[in-house]
Design goal:
Elements: E1 3-8, E2 28-30, E3 36-39, E4 62-71, E5 73-81, E6 89-95, E7 109-113, E8 125-128, E9 135-139, E10 145-147, E11 149-151, E12 156-165, E13 170-175, E14 179-180, E15 196-199, E16 210-211, H1 217-221, E17 227-232, H2 235-240, E18 251-252, E19 258-266, E20 272-282, H3 312-320, E21 328-333, H4 336-342
Parallel strand pairs: 1-21, 2-4, 7-9, 8-10, 15-20
Antiparallel strand pairs: 3-13, 4-12, 4-14, 5-8, 5-11, 5-13, 6-7, 6-12, 16-18, 17-19, 19-20
Keywords: Signal
Signal peptide: 1-20
Length: 344
């Protein structure tokens, strides 16, 4: 890595080398027809399902999603576990349209089929245009897929994902012609980046330092209104809007580099988008205090005018102290403002 040293004659260094929502009231709002990745399910909150209305099952490790339809059409999905182990068993239940958490009624679509029991080729589940049944399971009853929905403008639905067996995360890929409300955007302008790189200049050489993550907030928001930004340590927390970094103006990294996630949320619709970026700490370079003194001479025609010729290459050699000149770039400036402008 090439390290740049901006060096005035007085010498200055510039730069160098989910717990998921497991209750209906906290359901994740689905927007923009964007696929959901890296979701996790761990336990459940209040038991809101019963065998009487959900294909003979209930919550074990669950996550609730709320789907608001912008433009009607057909609505389906593929649920794909991250693990290919056929013993990973995911169920799902759909309630709606336009039901409330305290009056969910019967599931209008559900599948509690166990993929290992039916000796399926994979452990996927979901809704598609091929199937004709609207409910299946438990155990070896069914093939893990049911008929997709026909939905209307303005409808809303709850989709509950539950994992009775296994420990895999999963993704959801939306299918069909229906559309959801639009998500806010996180369009980083050309030439800019959300990544933040700093020197390890806190006095302890441990590749850990404090970052102000909110430097990214105006870049993420751009000219959008009615949105806010939060920062999270992993994708699941950003997706499910939990465990935000409480003091983003003073975040200390625990890994180097460390991936972080920004979530931009529409404060009216609840729609959101997430973006990954990283913070990185570069090694701090300690520049020794060097003073170069030579006698006035007559090379300029006057040996008493306080002017002489300095060989800055010799000063560079003293600064680098036998380190490779290809790893560093040193620049010298007469005026402080020149250095500031070069580093801006």
């Amino acid at each position: 890595m090439t390290k740049t040293i901006l060096l005035p004659l007085f010498l200055l260094l510039a730069f160098v080398k989910s717990h998921a929502q497991s209750d209906c009231s906290d359901a994740i709002i689905v927007c923009g027809n964007t696929n959901l990745d890296g979701l996790t399910v761990t336990g459940f909150g209040t038991q809101e399902l019963s065998a009487l209305n959900t294909c003979s099952s209930q919550e074990n490790n669950s996550i609730w999603l709320r789907i608001s339809i912008k433009k009607g059409g057909t609505l389906g999905f593929n649920l794909v576990p991250e693990s290919t182990d056929i013993r990973e068993d995911f169920d799902f239940f759909v309630f709606g349209p336009n039901e409330t958490c305290d009056a969910l009624g019967l599931a209008i679509r559900c599948s509690t089929t166990n993929p290992a029991s039916t000796r399926q080729n994979n452990n996927y589940t979901g809704m598609n245009e091929i199937e004709s049944d609207i409910a299946e399971g438990p155990g070896n009853n069914g093939n893990s897929f049911v008929k997709w929905l026909t939905v209307a403008d303005g409808d809303s639905y709850f989709l509950v994902i539950d994992r009775p067996i296994g420990n895999s995360n999963f993704s959801i890929q939306w299918t069909g012609t229906a559309t959801f409300n639009s998500s806010p955007t996180s369009n980083v302008p050309t030439g800019e980046t959300l990544n933040i790189v700093q020197c390890d200049s806190d006095g302890t050489a441990d590749f850990s330092t404090t970052f102000d993550l909110t430097k990214n907030t105006p870049i993420i928001i751009g000219d959008q209104t009615g949105v806010n930004v939060s920062y999270h340590k992993d994708q699941n927390d950003a997706t499910t809007s939990i465990n935000p970094i409480l003091n983003p103006t003073s975040f200390t990294n625990s890994q180097n580099p460390q991936s972080l996630f920004a979530r931009i949320t529409n404060t009216i619709t609840g729609c959101f988008t997430t973006s990954e970026f990283y913070v990185q700490v570069n090694e701090y370079i300690n520049i020794p205090a060097i003073e170069s003194v030579i006698c006035d001479d007559a090379k300029d025609g006057n040996d008493s005018n306080g002017k002489a010729t300095f060989d800055l290459n010799k000063i560079t050699a003293e600064i680098l102290n036998a380190q490779s000149t290809t790893d560093y770039i040193l620049k010298y400036f007469i005026w402080w403002i020149q250095l500031i402008n070069a580093n801006s």
